[in-house]
Amino acid sequence: MELVSIVIPTKNSAKYLENCLQSIQSQTYPHIETIIVDSGSTDSTLKIAKKFGCRVLQFKPKISAGRFEATQKRNYGAEHAKGAYVYYADADMELPRELIQQAVQLCKKGASAVILCEDSFGEGIWARAKNLERMCYWGDDTIEAPRFFKKKIWDELGGLDEEVGGGGDDWDLFQKLKDHGYSASRTAAHVRHNEGKLELGQLWKKRFMYGRDSLLYIKKRPVIGMISYFPMRKAYLKHWRLFVQRPVDGVGMVIMRTVEYVAGFCGIVYSLVKT
Fold first, then answer.
1. S-S: 149 plus which of 37, 154, 228, 257, CB 3.0-4.6 Å?
2. Kind and range of the H or E run holding 192
3. What letter does residue 12 receive in the DSSP assignment?
4. Given strand 191-197, what is the order of strands in its sheet?
5. In the chain, which residue ranges form alpha helices assigned H by DSSP?
6. How far apart are CA 4 and CA 150, in angstroms?
7. At what angle do helices 200-220 and 168-179 cross, to 10 degrees?
8. Phi, psi at residue 180, to the nearest 5°?
9. What is the pLDDT of residues 120-166, one digit of tens each?
10. How far is Cα of residue 210 from the mean position of the Cα atoms in its chain?
């Protein structure tokens, strides 16, 4: 049975990490190594990682303040992976028991990579709005991107583009996969993001950081980049019944996405001024 390497970047991630690692330990596919790529956590992140028998790598990317570290840490973890497959997850993700089994089976049937569709849960209106948003994106190749790869394909593609940065790096790798003539499949099971008690301030900060890097992806891939970042999506119209069934969450989603796009625009302006 081939080994699957799961790479998880961390920095003071103790709040969610134990549930994530517990879900990995509970997988029906037994042959898994979990690699934690940490950049100096001061909470109990490393204690939790050792409790679950993870390989822990210390790596602090040399990047400017205010940019995401995850891209560099994912590549670093993949470089040290021993598996025939590599999957990069986040510490706030919880995996259904059959997820890795499904991904491996899809690769054995011919897929070079696998999209692990994402769902979310949490407390409050903004967490519910984020859940509604994620449901709209199921099956949308302009938003979803594979995170599970045959290791030899990952190596051939060169991993994630560290110059593109947060957000666009996933999409860019998907485009590289297509450029090389490879295909991606989707699992039936959905990864669940634990949003916790989501606040608009958190979303503003995250989208501002994404905005700082968004022009890098658009410059590299202008057509698909504009489609991926465009605020009006066919996916919302396609899933109009969700908005009818959940009107309060729908209004919340409109407010939330407005805040996120304003934050992203401010990030773009900041990046232009800084350069």
1. 154
2. strand 191-197
3. S
4. 93-94, 191-197, 118-123
5. 14-25, 45-51, 70-79, 99-108, 125-136, 151-157, 168-179, 200-220, 222-229, 234-238, 240-245, 247-274
6. 9
7. 30
8. -90, 5
9. 999 999 999 999 999 999 988 888 999 999 999 999 999 999 988 76
10. 13
Asked if residues 148 and 182 have their Cβ atoms less than 8 Å apart, the reply is no
Q: How far is CA 136 from the centre of its chain?
A: 16
CA distance 6 to 3: 10
At 233 the pLDDT is 84
> What confidence score (pLDDT) does residue 1 get?
85
CATH architecture, range 4-198: Alpha-Beta Complex (3.90)
Which pLDDT tens digit goes with each residue over 164-205?
876 789 999 999 999 999 999 999 999 999 999 999 999 999
Task: For residue 186, give the nearest of 244, 154, 228, 138 by alpha carbon.
Answer: 138
Q: What is the 3-state secondary structure (H, E, C) of 138-177?
A: CCCCCCCCCCEEEHHHHHHHCCCCCCCCCCHHHHHHHHHH
pLDDT at 275 over 70: no
